[in-house]
Amino acid sequence: MAFRRTRPLSPVANTAAVLVFGLLALVAPTSYAEDCVILLHGLAKSDSSMNKLEQAAGDAGFIAINVDYPSTEFPIEKLAGHAIAPALDACAAQASDRSEQPYQVHFVTHSMGGILVRQYLSRVHVENLGRVVMLGPPNQGSEVVDQLGSFPGFHFMFGDAGLQLGSGKMSVPNKLGAASFDVGIIAGTKSINPILSRLLPGKDDGKVTVERTRLDGMNDHLELPVTHVFMMKDRKVIKQVIHYLQHGRFQRAKTQAADD
């Protein structure tokens, strides 16, 4: 194939090109190589439930810390520090190995993991806190716990933390107040548990209603046709999580073409 030589740009055109490329550099996604993402699973789950999100965060250039914590063994107040403090230390260690540049810490949570973050941040100031993405969080408590919490075997299966996810006197979510940090929330609207969904008024994901995922002070809220149990493994959800971490908003149809 022959290549044709082109004439050099005029001074005016050259200046314009420099300005255009400079503007593109300003709006282009930045590198997240020094930023850390802490992943927190939900009640009665393990870190393996967040493996796909961990992989996606790593592929996007983040340091991914996938935390495994004993969600049914302690109350939320104890679980929060038990899970998050060591993860912050791990972020600091890995970020310093990569670069001496400042880094931010982001959180991606499923279900009760979001309540752990709210609990921790209500007590501890994280100076380099970035963004938080919550998947199906019972931010106003769950009616399922209200209905089933007194049933025999519930406490045995889900522990003190499970009982604290209701909306009554023991509710931890309802004691934590509004968000004072950048948080985006994804709520599911599909259920594979019709029995539990009958206990939930309005749209729900089988465990939490869309309305009760909302949190005063949240930055963005998105509904997707996914279930509570499997939302953290869903391709659409994962794409939205990474988009929020990078841009501080979820991807809507009108912006999708531009961002793709």
Automatic annotation (TrEMBL):
<dbReference type="InterPro" id="IPR029058">
    <property type="entry name" value="AB_hydrolase_fold"/>
</dbReference>
<protein>
    <submittedName>
        <fullName>Alpha/beta fold hydrolase</fullName>
    </submittedName>
</protein>
<dbReference type="Pfam" id="PF02089">
    <property type="entry name" value="Palm_thioest"/>
</dbReference>
<keyword id="KW-0378">Hydrolase</keyword>
<dbReference type="GO" id="GO:0016787">
    <property type="term" value="F:hydrolase activity"/>
</dbReference>
